[in-house]
Amino acid sequence: MSATEGLSELDTAPGRTSRLDTVELATRHPDDEQPYAELGLRAEEYARIREILGRRPTTAELAMYSVMWSEHCSYKSSKVHLRRFADLPKSDALLVGMGENAGVVDVGEGWAVTFKVESHNHPSYVEPYQGAATGVGGIVRDILTMGARPIAVMDSLRFGAADAPDTARVLPGVVAGVGGYGNCLGLPNIGGELLFDETYAGNPLVNALCVGVLRHEELQLAKAEGTGNKVVLFGARTGGDGIGGVSVLASETFDAEGPAKRPAVQVGDPFTEKLLIEACLEIFAAGLVTGIQDLGGAGISCATSELAAAGSGGMAIDLDAVPLRDSTLTPAEILMSESQERMCAIVEPGKVEAFLAVCAKWDVLATVIGEVTDGDRLTIDWHGERIVDVPPRTVALEGPRYERPMARPADLDALQADAPPSTSADLRADWLAVVSSPDGADKSWVTEQYDRYVRGNTVLAQPEDAGVLRIDESSNLGIALSLDGNARFARLDPYTGAQLNLAEAYRNVAVSGAKPLAVTNCLNFGSPENPEVMWQFAEAVRGLADGCRELGLPVTGGNVSLYNQTGDVAINPTPVIGVLGVHADVTRRVPTGWRAAGESVLLLGESRPEFGGSAWAAVVHGHLGGLPPRLDLAAERALGELLASLSADGLVSSAHDLADGGLAQALTESALRYGTGARLSVPGDPTASLFGESVARVVVTTADPAAVRAAAEAAGAPVTELGTTGGDALVLDGLLELPLAELRAAWTATLPALFGSPEATVGSIPAGAVPTS
Amino acid sequence: MRIGVITFPGSLDDVDAARAVRLAGAEPVSLWHGDHDLKDVDAVVLPGGFSYGDYLRAGAIAARSPLMQDVVAAAHGGLPVLGICNGFQVLCEAGLLPGALTRNSHLHFRNRDQGLLVERADTAWTTSFQPGQRIVVPVKNGEGRYVAADADLDRLEGEGRVVVRYVSTTPGSGVDANPNGSSRDIAGVTSADGRVVGLMPHPEHAVEDLTGPSTDGLGFFTSVLSALVVAA
Question: Which of A443, A498, A521, B208 would suit a FRET pair with A490, their CA atoms being 20 to 30 Å apart?
Fold first, then answer.
């Protein structure tokens, strides 16, 4: 019996027919057998539930515990490691830390920013469009729940080999879903990543970030306080979509049958979410709520138990009051449903009328479904009978936690010993290969499907290194954000890899001229039941925590996505790191592209022959091995401070971080942005200079090279003058010459060739793309 | 000068339109779709977005909102009305402008900086431009392909009612000038009296150097101020 088949019998008392399972029945028949395993619970977890309740759970209670104790909701495998983030030194910038829906950062002038990235990997494989769309919808509600107006989104995407048939099924749907939902909400998409690797073939990664802004005093928290206060469910009706999404879909490894779990994927309606956003912001402004929680994974089970657990009392819910899309849903299904675009608020009785009036203005359905009680129980009634009576903390906060066994991957020594090639046989051909590879190529095919202009505060967006937004039109206060997650580095060394990703995101934010302030993360790994994966996870967390300590940045929250594997093959460990920075004056932002001829091109930082995990080794040699580049966070910090001062003093006209593809990739992107070439001379070993991926490096252009050199030398950053912008080619003296037209043709052709010309009719599923088993 | 910006459920670029009005030197006035109240504004902007989630047809439900009845009546009396993107779709659905906006030929939402040729510089919304001027403003839509019967297109062109046409943003780049397959590269049209203008591109996103690809879009909003001064 599959889990979803089991659900049809859930609300019938075990072994009986057509009789609602109630607390009373569970007490009278304590020994009835229950389908806990089908719901994803282990025998010892089930035993603990019985111990907590002093009886067997009702089928509705079992449903609640099963979703809330899932890996996705309880972080049971990761919690013991995530403590490292909480142990970081306290930051003055952090108004709200980990544990709430999203962390909140003080960015000055009374403004605060909240941001978070979350995965929707498994649903996006099963149903690409809806999976990705509801991933955006879910993270937007998390930000809204903090009292913030959502102001932008970003997306970090990974797919299997670019030319694999299934990638042609998954990628266009994911991109259309991210765009379809975000565009319809009126949120600019300001950046992200798109990378390919065969380990993601059965496990694409769809990580969505949302950022919101609020005044300090507008902060809202998710807790139910005040006996007699009403519990209001508002937004969309509850339907049969997404049942068991967190327990069945997100917390298990896919088997060979792959996309057989379609009914567990939620269906999104961004129009309803847009109305929900506007209604919520009006409700917050009028001071009509004492607590609020969004309904995401685990639906009503999660919202009620979390609100009650965070409050001081209990909660009584009348499940009959929940508006339904489908009147045949059973109480357990209602409790587990992950129907989208729903929120739950705690409202004082005297404010309910005003609350409902705001909802009516925005055509948002709102219903009182219960109230805060003075007890310490969460009770839920159905047709006049009690079907749930639990201590809410045991559901929401006191789930299981495991110290899973860990083991360094057996192949890691061999992998690290397998040094990459270090000499290019044909620099020019390799250059074109790297920048036209799916990872290096122009991403316009994707980003043109996203609105980057809406709200009118987008200062920089893709393909820039960081997204930059104006927060305050009168003061020009702004923020910068970057998401980065190099999985090749993490595969070679997860401890260093996670720090390298942190360093890259930090650098991308610094390149725009911003001061980095805070860190979020989305940790995508394989099965925690595999000791080697668990070791990768623990090492990455340890690395990220150590890196944040050294850079003096707090971790504001994050998301863990495990079980990203099909059969025995786990994805490359993919810690995606987001860094938030602040611009005191966003008009000082520094773009990546070269606009003017006759400016000096300078390389800041030191280039070494480092090819382990590099794009060049992967693209040209199909090689992954050796060690990732040497980490130097002190150099990153010095470089970041230098870039901020160069930006504030207006000394640089462009700055571009060097990362995947090294100098060749960065020069290509800077030159093609506005069609300005350069004549350059690259010292040292040409392969290392062009394709090595040493970190803490940035290319800048300036009209005043002497001043930049002086500033860099004062900051202790090595400076190399490469040459001068101008012309319609990239000319590297003595090495190669690349006309921009040829370079642009190579760089832009790749994604349209793979996923359809923008002018062609796209949308059909290629033959063989969908597994038939 | 007071210029109204209508908010429908699902309107998204209303804040941008209000900002553009302000930067042009007028006072933006928020109008609510459910009211029968134009608040004595001197002109009206219907902003971009996904009113009613584009359900049924883009703009179809919004065109039947209470306030649109007042807009239609006022437009027949000469009130300047600008419809941007979803606003253009609403104006077509409301019968104030001819033609229809359908799914882009390539079936994708597309957002890019778009070259436009201003063909009419004498409507209420385009007097700040020169006839034949090339401008760049963002375009972003999934259902922006302008269509009409050939005879209607002939008549529109004959009457000079094409206000802006798509042209290449970077001539010689090989990138198709037309972003969505619109008939005869039509990006925007006007009413017979030149008071009502609808266009798919977004001039309100090109009003500041900091955030836009240009400030060319500001001309639409300064134009209507001149038109109102002349009328007064």
Answer: A443
Sign of CA dihedral A127, A128, A134, A138: positive
> Per-residue pLDDT for A764 more than 50?
no
d(CA A590, CA A648) in angstroms, rounded, equals 10
**Of A321, A138, A134, the residue nearest A237 (C-alpha):** A321
Tokens 């006191």 belong to residue:
A398
Give the residue numbers spanning the domain of A616: 591-755
Q: Do B142 and A186 touch (CB under 8 A)?
A: no
Could you give the angle at which helices A427-436 and A662-674 cross, rounded to 10 degrees?
70
A632 CB-contact burial (10 Å; exposed 0-12 / middle 13-18 / buried 19+)? middle
pLDDT at B174: 67
Do the chains contact at B16 and A269, CB–CB below 8 Å?
no
* B37-52 pLDDT tens trace: 999 999 999 999 999 9
State the CATH number of the domain containing residue B107: 3.40.50.880
Domain with residue A623: its CATH number is: 3.90.650.10
Cross-chain residue pair B142–A183, CB shorter than 8 Å: yes
Q: Using one digit for the tens of pLDDT, what is the confidence trace for A49-67? A: 999 999 999 999 999 999 8
pLDDT for B191 beyond 60:
yes
Whether A59 maps to a domain, the answer reads: no
Is A97 a residue whose pLDDT tops 90?
A: no
Q: Do A458 and B107 touch (CB under 8 A)?
A: no
B19 contact A CB<8A:
yes
Report if residue A623 sits inside a domain.
yes
CB neighbourhood size of B23 (10 A):
17
Number of domains in chain B: 1
Give the range of the structural domain holding residue B41, as residue numbers without chain letter.
Answer: 2-231
For residue B211, what pLDDT is reported?
A: 98
Mutate to test the interface with A, among B104, B108, B208 (most CBs of A within 10 A): B108
Which residues of B are tagged catalytic?
85, 202, 204
- Say which of B106, B112, B210 has its CB closest to residue A759: B106
pLDDT digits (tens, 9 = 90+) for A124-142: 999 999 999 999 999 999 9
* CB within 8 Å: A453 and B202: yes
Looking at CA atoms only, how far is residue A447 from chain B in angstroms? 8
To the nearest whole number, what is the mean pLDDT of chain A?
A: 91
Alpha carbon distance A25, A341 (integer Å): 34
User: What is the distance between the alpha carbons of residues B193 and B75, in angstroms, rounded to a whole number?
Assistant: 10
B42 shares contact with chain A (CB less than 8 Å): no
Q: How many domains does chain A have?
A: 1
- C-alpha dist (Å) from residue B200 to A180, B46, B110, B168: 18, 12, 12, 16
Shortest Cα distance, chain A CAs vs residue B231, angstroms: 31
Distance (Å) from the alpha carbon of B52 to chain A's nearest alpha carbon: 7
Q: Is residue A614 part of a domain?
A: yes
| B99-147 pLDDT tens trace | 999 999 999 999 999 999 999 999 999 999 999 999 999 999 999 999 9
Q: Hey, what amino acid is at A60?
A: A
Q: Are A343 and A306 in contact (CB under 8 A)?
A: no
Peptide bond into B138 cis (omega under 30): no
Name the minimum distance, in Å, from the CA of B228 to any CA of chain A: 26
The predicted structure's pLDDT at residue A227: 94
Q: Does residue A431 lie within any of the structural domains? A: no
Residues of A in contact with B16 (CB under 8 A): 453-456
Residue A377 pLDDT greater than 60, yes or no:
yes
Residues 44-63 of B with CB under 8 A from A: 48-50, 52-55
Q: In this predicted structure, what is the pLDDT of residue A772? A: 32
Mean per-residue pLDDT of chain B = 95
- Which positions in chain B touch A274 (Cβ < 8 Å)? 9-10, 12, 50, 53
CA distance A174 to A206: 8
